[in-house]
Amino acid sequence: MPPGDRPMSRYVRIPLASLILSVLYISPCGGQSIKNIRVGYAGGVFTEARQKDVQVALELWMTNLGRRFDSRVEKITGTVFQDIQEIERTLKADEIDLVGLGSLDYLRLEDHTAMDPVLVGSAGGEVELEYAVFVRKDKNIRRIQDLKGRTLLVESGGSGDLTVVWLETSLLKNGLPEAARFLGNVIMVDKPMQAVVPVFFNQADACLVSLRSFITMKELNPQLGNELSILIQSPRLLPGLICLRRAVGQEFRDDVVNSMARFHMEPEGQQILLTFKMDKIVLFDPSYLKNTRKMFREYRALQAGGETNKKGTKRASAGRQDDRSVQSRKKVGNTADSPALK
After folding, report:
1. pTM of the model
2. What whole-number distance in Å separates Cα of residue 68 and Cα of residue 259?
3. Rounded to 5 degrees, what angle do the CA atoms 276, 282, 285 make?
4. 4 with 324: CB under 8 angstroms?
5. Secondary structure element (H or E) that encloses residue 195, with its range
6. DSSP character for 190?
């Protein structure tokens, strides 16, 4: 793993964020038969409140997968990969064949592991998402600079550190410190409503959610559109993708790609996809990563520039700090007691 790339250990972790963060290991056992299937889950960024839903969906997925391989499979077991270094190590050791990653983790690993992106999640016919910071129109927050010392609620969304890295890129482009030093509080929440509603009721200063989530909420509660406005908005970014080890057999590759691409046609598959806010899984196209790659390169360049001291000398720790993100995060409480929108 290159210097300057660090796992997302600063986030709340549970056994797997989403289907896109799943890892599958296949042990061949003579010919085309498969003796063991090991399903491993990369540590994700969902808060503990959603752990049960995620685990139920993943158990369904493992059952579904077992049926697809039928008599070729003796056993399916699950493990958790706690960080990106562990995933890299197992990929290099040819111990996993299918790996799902957040898009930024893929970009961190692509030059150091032999894997090919094959699938991505889709919702509403779109695989990329736009994200935005929303504030109340009647608050004195007109520019990104006005977020200094404010409380920001962030929908975790299972996209890894994508939204926070985009936010920090925006801060750095405006000559501002990283979010941990610039903002007062950054609070990760499970659902977009838990981010948006407190801002509507003046219980928080700003929220960072996907534009699609906000539009859906606004359709149900038009007052949101009347009271809240966009402060900054991201380009279209890819949350995650599923990769296969380059040397994997073609038959296995076809089996996995075809079976996962049919998830949306089956009741169990639909239930799994619904849990992870997707309606289908589609074939990967390199263009899906274009904007995310550009943003991440810009972020790294800005981080490198920020690590240069006033004399123009690089700090010794600059490489190790490349992917530094928000460090002062905490879980938000249940927002069910907030007044209902009227």
Report:
1. 0.77
2. 8
3. 120
4. no
5. helix 192-200
6. S
Domains of the chain, with CATH numbers?
A: 19-125+239-292 (3.40.190.10), 131-235 (3.40.190.10)
Task: Write the DSSP symbol of residue 155.
Answer: E
Query: Among candidates 125, 157, 103, 120, which has minimal Cα distance to 295?
Result: 103
Rounded Cα distance between 220 and 211, Å, is: 15
Q: CA 293 from chain center: how many Å?
A: 14
Length of the chain: 342
Q: Are 183 and 141 a contacting pair, CB within 8 Å?
A: no
DSSP for 84-116 reads HHHHHHHHHTT--SEEEEEHHHHHHHTTTS-EE
Is-contact 247 114, C-beta < 8 A? yes
DSSP character at residue 340: P
Cβ atoms within 10 A of the Cβ of 204, count? 23
Q: What is the pLDDT along the chain (342 residues), one digit of tens a residue?
A: 433 344 433 333 333 333 433 334 334 433 444 555 555 555 554 444 455 565 566 666 666 666 666 555 555 555 566 678 888 887 888 777 777 788 998 999 998 888 899 989 888 888 999 999 999 999 999 999 999 999 999 987 666 789 999 999 999 999 999 999 999 999 988 889 999 999 999 999 999 999 999 999 999 999 999 999 999 999 999 998 888 888 777 877 787 788 777 777 777 667 667 766 778 889 999 999 999 999 999 999 999 886 653 334 443 333 334 454 443 344 443 443 444 444
CB 106 within 8 A of CB 243: yes
Tokens of 140: 């004195």
